[in-house]
Amino acid sequence: MAMPSFIFFIWISILCRNCFLCDELDAETAFSTGGQADFRFESAKPSRYLLYEVNPGEGFNLRRDVYIRMANLVKFLNDDELWTLVLPPWNRLYHWRSAVKQSQIPWSTFFDPKSLQRYIPVMEFSEFLNATEGRQIDEVYYLQGYKEGWKDGKWEEKMDERDCIEQNSFVEDIDGSWLWWFWDFPNVTAKNFKCISIQAQSTYLKKFLISTVHARSVFLVRAETLIHGSFSEWSREFWTARRSMRFAKHLRRIGDSFRSAYLNSTDTEDKTALKDDWRRMKRKHGVAIGGPYVAVHLRRRDFLYSHKEDIPSLAGAAQQIEKVLVELDLRKVFVATDAPDDEFEELRGHLLPYEVYRYVAPEDVLAKYMDGGVAIVDQWICTHARHFIGTAVSTFSFRIHEEREILGFSSEATFNCFCPDDKPGCDQPSKWVAIYD
Prior knowledge:
Blueprint: H1 5-16, H2 27-30, E1 48-52, H3 60-77, E2 83-87, H4 113-117, E3 122-124, H5 125-131, E4 136-144, E5 158-162, E6 171-172, E7 178-179, E8 189-199, H6 205-212, E9 217-221, H7 236-243, H8 249-262, H9 267-270, E10 291-298, H10 303-306, H11 314-328, E11 332-337, H12 341-350, E12 355-357, H13 363-383, E13 385-389, H14 395-407
Parallel strand pairs: 1-2, 1-9, 2-3, 4-8, 4-9, 10-11, 10-13, 11-12
Antiparallel strand pairs: 5-8, 6-7
Helix pairs in contact: 3-6, 3-7, 8-13, 11-12, 13-14
């Protein structure tokens, strides 16, 4: 006898009650409504929480890379017990120079939380405070290297509790708790604090966190100390976590509107439409065509002295852009750059009579989404171009490479960078090819 539909629905609900991420259940099969599932359910066992923070001097795009390392650690932890990754709030970074207030910014401002949840359990720091009593984090581990460096010049995975090598901002209070700024959230403390010397990939911590540490909440400070290791950009695990990091829909809409209004670019014509669920989207190289424009990321400011050997003059950059425009028979250029206005206008002058565009956020957009949101709009527009030229060794350009890989652009149209004027045949970026399940 066929099972009545309402009984089947109840049976499925009971089955999933104790499951946080039920990837093995296809929502379109289980529910006749066809609604999109994010696979989030209540857990019978309380979650443990992993918090992390990155060196304050690191930029937006390196921090995104550290997220992938932490996400894969949590993914492996969840093979044995339930862990949730607590996302560190965003605050003003070195490159965020506008006058708008930029503090305690939730990840949902920049990224799609539902998309992140399809890979691992995540929550905002404010949600963590609401979910735990006392506003106290159980264990803080300040990650550092070894004072003596590598033994005999050989690198091996290891970790040890050590005295702190460098000064840090954790202070022990008179009651034994530990104070820190905790992203300016009030009345937050830590119960215990230790310095750990470590050289290892992020997943090396799994055994330590499950077998040695029994605290419910663990905070890893200076998480960039951990490396990808076996789960680098050449691995399936890296790309699965990376694909889950979709930009927030409101930022994608802004970028899409700009593409349509100024660059004659739409997802239908460009063959760049996204599926709602990234897990069901696996593109082959060359499927995406891109809009009828060339996009470039031209890094200036600090690169003029820190990487002057890697970047061209404005006239040299214009020559390289024009060469591609002629080859592809295109007339429009989109420029993502940190250059001041006078340098942008100089570049535009070198490129006459071509049409040169950049995105300038209206005041209300800047106030609402801040510099990080504006940077994402820039990256989103660059991602959809027919051809992209980036800046060597810039993580901003690296993230665009990854987005274009996910959309299915050819490697030839993606992995390109400007050459300095005196090295016209400079080495081009390594091709990080997306790896699927």
